[in-house]
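Q: I'm writing a short methods note and want an example of a predicted protein-small molecule complex. Could you take the sequence and the SMILES for magnesium ion and return the bound structure as tokens? Please keep the output block clean; save any remarks for afterwards.
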Amino acid sequence: MDKQLSTGIKNLDSILNGGIPEGHCVLVAGSCGTGKTILSQQFLFEGAKLGENGVYFSLTEPREKMIKNMRDFSFFDENLIESGKIKIVDVTQDARLKGVGLSNVQGLINIITDVIESSGAKRIVIDSITALCENLEHEDKIRDFIFELNFQLMYLGCTNILISEIPPQEFKYSIYGVEEFIADGVILLTEFERKGDLIRALQVIKMRGLSHSRNKHVLKILEDGVTLVPLFKADME
Ligand SMILES: Nc1ncnc2c1ncn2[C@@H]1O[C@H](COP(=O)(O)OP(=O)(O)OP(=O)(O)O)[C@@H](O)[C@H]1O
Ligand SMILES: [Mg+2]
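A: Understood, no commentary inside the block.
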């Protein structure tokens, strides 16, 4: 078995029998507020604490707002951002500054690969692949972009989380329908109603090269970030 990367999320490493295999591209799919961003931030902070640099490509939240929202979590460490071990990059703003149009496939790929190469990052998050593809218009172009991005990330040897935004209560993993086939792994975040409360849940749908649990787990967001509890053990009273 190749090296597996600890995710920093309580119980996720045991669900995955050790963590995310190095070099994998994992799609984290979920509707709004299901915990995609917090889970992915924890993955980067865990890596940085272990000496692996990380880059968070954000398209949905501006950099400063994202940092402000993370501050209260115990996994957050400002030093890791100040020292450059974790970089938060606003892709839209970077593209604008460099005069790259958001429908320019090669331009976007170049921006992403330049940042990764110059920071020596080993862990990458793209939040979200859905927003990144939004301006590409045609399905063919979106497909080409996702293939090329995946190829570049693989070539750079990073372990990647691509966030996929999906509508609530719908049984699909992505908007464009190709992301889940290209990805080596799919982690699905959902929610269900229980006594008038919305409970968050996580399920690992696939993880190539691994034998893993496909049990649904209740996902709680606490002061130390995301925590997972097997559904049958969760206290939902
Ligand atoms: N300090 C905190 N303690 C507990 N829960 C929190 C805390 N901060 C945020 N949350 C919960 O986390 C949710 C946001 O999680 P997150 O940003 O990871 O979701 P997301 O799936 O990325 O959403 P979106 O699709 O809108 O980007 C909030 O709606 C809130 O319910
Ligand atoms: Mg988010």
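A: Remarks, as requested: The chain has a mean pLDDT of 94. The longest helix spans residues 139-156.
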